[in-house]
Amino acid sequence: MKFRVDRDAFADAVAWAARSLPVRPSAPVLSGLLIDASDEGLVLSTFDYETSARATLTAEVADEGRALVSGRLLADMDGLIASAVEEGFRYDCPVQGNLRGVLRETEVGGHKLMPGDRAYLFYTSANHDPAHYDEPDRFRIDRDWTREARHYAFGFGIHFCLGAELARAETQIAIRTLYTRLPNLRMKAGFRPQQVPGMVFRTWAEIEMEYDGAPLPRLSESSGAA
């Protein structure tokens, strides 16, 4: 891929596209910049897990092509996949909280609770507690989980999720497989996913993705496994 474009115009377009993305995550897990050069000019598309933006520039294209400048996770999958998945569970856990029964008289945050009362434990709130997490409202893909407090995405104590390790493994495998087998996988340009609100569960209604070319071989096939 070869093209010639005004340097200042290119810099302004990249800056505008970057500003259009949510400022909440400091380094979105699935973010990137797609550069598409054709006889119609140069198209820059930025995207992450919530939104996307596109800017078109006039350019002299000598050799058409497409290139993905990936985010940090895609650039260092082996080094960041574990911390990225763990941070995802902390930042926006799929189970927001749950009801628990009060067994003895106690006080929480200045509110008296009596035996028989029902309390809603909001895991997401605990996972963003500034007393326990450094910069809790930033998505830090390289958060050091050997130093940070354990998050509550899987509950706590006798109610801790028995499938926590399975969920971690499945999520890591799914992300690695999708982004290894589907070239330049990205959110569909212009698509804005909507979250399904809920007191306990929160998820996405749908996610529209696109990629280039045909899927690559399964990981087991590319490694020569039976």
Describe it for me?
27% of the residues lie in helices and 25% in strands. It contains six helices and 14 strands. It has a four-stranded antiparallel sheet. Strands 1-5 form a two-stranded antiparallel ribbon. Helix 3 crosses helix 5. The radius of gyration is 22 Å and the shape is elongated. 15% of the residues are buried.
Question: What tags apply to this protein structure?
Answer:
226 residues; elongated; 4-stranded antiparallel beta sheet; two-stranded antiparallel ribbon; alpha+beta
What's the arrangement of secondary structure elements?
Layout: E1 2-4, H1 7-20, E2 32-38, E3 41-47, E4 52-57, E5 60-63, E6 65-70, H2 72-75, H3 77-91, E7 97-101, E8 106-108, E9 111-113, E10 118-122, H4 123-127, H5 164-181, E11 186-187, E12 195-196, E13 203-204, E14 209-210, H6 219-222
Antiparallel strand pairs: 1-5, 2-3, 2-6, 3-4, 7-10, 8-9, 11-14, 12-13
- What is the quaternary state of this protein? single chain
Sheet with the most strands: spatial strand order: 4-3-2-6
Q: Which structural class should the secondary elements be placed in?
A: alpha+beta
Query: What distance lies between the first and last C-alpha atoms, to the nearest angstrom?
Result: 37 Å
State the share of residues found in helices, binned by percent: 25-40%
Low-confidence stretches: 22-30
Q: Mean of the pLDDT scores?
A: 78
- Compute the number of strand runs: 14
Main beta-sheet annotation: 4 strands, antiparallel
How much of the polypeptide forms β-strand, as a percent range? 25-35%
General form = elongated
Rg over CA atoms:
22 Å
